[in-house]
Amino acid sequence: MVGLRKRGEDIRCFIIENVEEHPRDITTIAAEKFDVSRQAINKHINKLVEQGSINRSGKTRNRTYTLAPTAQYRESFELSPSLEEDQVWRRNIKPRLGELPDNVMDIWHYGMTEMINNAIDHSDGATLLVNIVRTAQDTKAIIHDDGIGIFRKIMTELDLEDERHAVLELSKGKLTTDPTRHTGEGIFFTSRVFDSYAIMSGEVYFSHNFEDIEDFILQNERPMNGTTVFMDISNNTARTTKSVFDQYTTDEDYGFNKTVVPVKLAQYGNENLVSRSQAKRLLARVDRFRIVVFDFEDVETIGQAFADEIFRVFASNNADVEIYSTNMTKDVAQMVGRAKVREA
């Protein structure tokens, strides 16, 4: 009896974990996974529908299933110096998240307070909107402010080329427009502790998924006003904030001294990375780190001057910075190798 009950729980957990990706064929997928009939799976689906864990819509062949919200919260706040992120968290947000493992609650505490504080201190907006939806599988949050826009703010304050350039700098970490009050670590680490994280602002959409080492950037077809942050994490992840922080620190000083630089963010459209100016844009502020990893994912080739500026000129002028490369194609590796030989 215990074995049958455990198998039933496993089946229902599988349905909940996979229904979002398979809204129309979850019955077939689950039946194949557990080697049982579709009728047996439908009994478990019916139970989940009765419990309010999933929703069912449509009939027969057009039937679809989705995760049902178990908790929803939406509230707006006036952005003013009197608004305090820890009070918003303690009074308004934490009670709506329900029972979550301590490590997951710690991640939400960190991410929500960091993003709300950014809106308070940097957005120059009037209103903050917080929207949270929890299901049996995960919890999602959207934070929107009606301010100047994060990428435009960074571009203006740091005199950068455009909003895309601001994303490149943001992805490195240690970026802030107010160094007297902020370390520039909040967005970097928040984007890495959640399963998925994204910012939509102005002309740019920036995102990072936990399983990927690199960041992604897209051009918005229509410029977006203000800043919208999206965060999503499983309710049962084993991840901790410490485990993520430790990936970017060393045993010697426990400081934020390692960064991974997504080289492709230095590209515009289909242009190739060939010039020293492109390399210098990529290298801006990386001398603040002790370990720098250049990630060449989706970069097919680079030019001699680009490689030389990074792996010979910068390397020779910053001997205390350890430089590594990853995800190189054969062509990229050859060009990097030539530059290192010249440096030696």
Overview of the molecule:
This protein is α+β, with helices and mostly antiparallel strands and 344 residues long. 41% of the residues lie in helices and 23% in strands. The chain has 12 helices and 10 strands. The termini are far apart. The model has no long low-confidence stretch (mean pLDDT 85).
Which blocks of ≥5 consecutive residues have pLDDT under 50?
A: none
For the biggest sheet, the summary is: 5 strands, antiparallel
Count of individual beta strands: 10
Report the structural category.
alpha+beta
The percent range for strand residues is 15-25%
The rounded distance between the terminal residues' Cα atoms is 70 Å
Shape: globular
Order of helices and strands: HHHEEEHHEEHHHEEHEHEHEH
Tell me the radius of gyration: 23 Å
Q: Kindly state the percentage of residues in helix.
A: 40-55%
Number of helices: 12
Instruction: State the strand order across the main sheet.
Output: 3-4-5-7-6
The averaged pLDDT comes out at: 85
